[in-house]
Structure formats: structure tokens, C-alpha cells
Amino acid sequence: MRYxxxxxxxxxxxxxxxxPAAAQEYFSxxxxxxxxxxxxRQYSGxxxxxRAKLDNYPDSxxxxxxxxxxxxxxxxxxxxxxxxxxxxxxxxxxxxxxxKTVRFANNHTLYFPGLQVDSLNFxxxxxxxxxxxxxxxxDGIIGYSFLSRYIVKVDYDTTRLFIYTKGYMKYPKxxxxxxxxxxxxxxxxxxxxxxxxxxSRFFFDTGAGLCLLFTEDFVNDSSLFxxxxxxxxxxxxxxxxxxxxxxxxxxxxxxxxxxxxxIPTFIFEDEFNVTSYPYLGxxxxxxxxxxxNVILNYERRDIYLMPNKHFREPFDYAYTGLGFYYIxxxxxVTDIMKGSPAEAAGxxxxxxxxxxxxxxxxxxxxYRNMLQQPGVRLKFLVVRKKDGDLEELFxxxxxxxKKK
Length: 404
Hints:
32 strands, 7 helices, mainly beta, disordered N terminus
């Protein structure tokens, strides 16, 4: 019965010689049909990037597909360069690192291969931090305003997005249906285990390039981790900029019938009340969700998960304590955590990374992937900010699974 959409059943009793007769009427939507499909790219952490054209502007723009976005947005620099008119609003958006009132660019159109999406109202935000993280311009984020209009399948096996009309859809065999709470962002209930079994609600967030993110309040109130649990200092990026976090691992996390063990887990202080704790304990990010091909059917409040070829891939247990971003065409070191492998290697804020292991591509995605190898000793060629000298540094990548 889970595949029946908008069905109303009526039982009518009619006197016919004392025998009851039953008649049933079913009113349902027509079958969903495939509109188009097109490729996507993935950034570190499994984040999905789509290319689309806006209105009559000739060049394609880069958008992140984000179930954690309650609308759709454009980068403020992109808006300025394209001279897109905006209007003030009293609408406020919040993220893990900030809270701000936004302007809007109303009634615009996005063009994907084989698909035209009209009447979109974009809120405007500054995505410079995302551009510096991924090493190429991020022009916007695509969330609820797009996802609510279609049935969307994200296929990580083929790295293609499939767009269907709303309607009756029979999901493939071999997966599992979850029924999120949905206003504009899906919220799912999950079981997790460390010192004890805990059940809580989490954002289903494909725009987050990590596995799990918990709030400090949730961790403390649930007594999830023991006081002896190894926790490392790190940072992450979000709306408003960078924020400090802690990094550890969780013994077990369940999504429906699927279990994951020893999952890298970030913990943050929810200063801006993104999770409305205790309503939510945090979020599930795309480094975990990319292990499923996902069908998002917002009209039915369905998320259908199918384990894919990435399901059993190992998690990223690497730890460096090294923060670097693509700034003005250079891969620049911005943060070094105390007591980290980066500090032990002698990195300094402002160092420009010229090469890692003789790779001089300055491709920040390639560099981040190279650092996801616990135990590996890597050679860095850097230019010092203070005097412009060229130096070699050696760093052994740490492992968050190992004890100090």
C-alpha cells in the first residue's frame, strides 16, 4: 500500500435481497514520468554540484543540491556581476555559523538539460567561504523550492540526477522507505549507540560534506559519550563562515534497517539554534547519505534509500588539524589546530601550498583527497608568508581511531 498516492476508498452498502454489496472507487494521480536526466559532479564529502543556466545569461552556473536548504539561493558576488535586481525583505536565514536577514531576486528561471524551472524566488547570500573550500565559484544552492516541484532521484552509481513529474511511482526493490517530517527540510528519526542506545531526530542534509553532526547539548544531555572518549579539535564551514568543532567517532548509527559503525562525528555548539534543540539532535550529512541512491518524493513525504556501490566504502578517519582554502588563486593555510599533525609539521598561518607529493595542480579537491590517508607521510612544498622563502614540510596524517 505504500505506493498508492492520494487514494480515497468508499464502501457503499446497497440493499439487494438482504445481501450487502460493496463498491470501491479509487482516485489516484497518473503515473510519474521521467522528464530528463543529467550528470552531476561531487565535491569532497559527497556534496553534489549541478550546472544550470539562469534566465538569458549565457554561462552555466554552479549550484549545490541541498536538502538542508529551505528555499533556493544565489551568491551575492554572482548577483552583483550579473547585475540582477534584488529587493529587501524581513526574511531571516540561519546556519551553523551565522544568522542574517536576506534580500531576494524574484521570478527567475533556471535551465537544466531538458528542464526549464520557472518562477523561482532566490534569496541572496554570501558563498565566498564555499568557493574557497571547493576551489571554484559556487553560484548558489538549490533546495526546497526546486525539490518540492518534482520527484528527484540522486544516483551516485552513475552520478546522474533523474527528474520525474509528480505522480504515482513504484519504487525499485531492494531499498527502504523512510517517512520524514517535512516542512521545508526533511527531518528523520534515527537510532544510535555509544555508551547507551539513543533515539533522536536529525536533518537529512545532502549539502553537508560530512557524516554526522551533533549539537553539544544533545551529546551532553543524552550522555552519549563517556568522558574518556577521544575528541579532537577541528573546524568546519557553514553559513556565516568558519566555526570550531570537535571530532570523534560514533559506535553505531542506524538509518532504517541499515547500520553503520565507527562513524566520524562532529560536535558543535549550536549558538544560533539551527536545530531548535531538543527538537533535533543534529544532522546527517552526505558523506553518509551518498552510500545510497536516493529518491526524494516531497509530495508524498517519501525518501527511498537504495544501497549503492559506495555502501561499504570505508569512512574518512584522517585528521590533520590543517585548514586551507583557495584564496586569490592560491591554496592558502588559514588555521592550524594546537596539538595537531599540522602544528607538529611546522605549518604557519599564511603559508601557500605549492605542491603536495610533487602534485603542483593547485586543485584543492585533489589536495583534500590526498590528505584522507591516515598514517601516510606527505611532503609539502610551501611559500612562507613572512619572507617568501620556499620550504619543504613533512606531515604524517593522523587517525581519529587511534588513541593518543
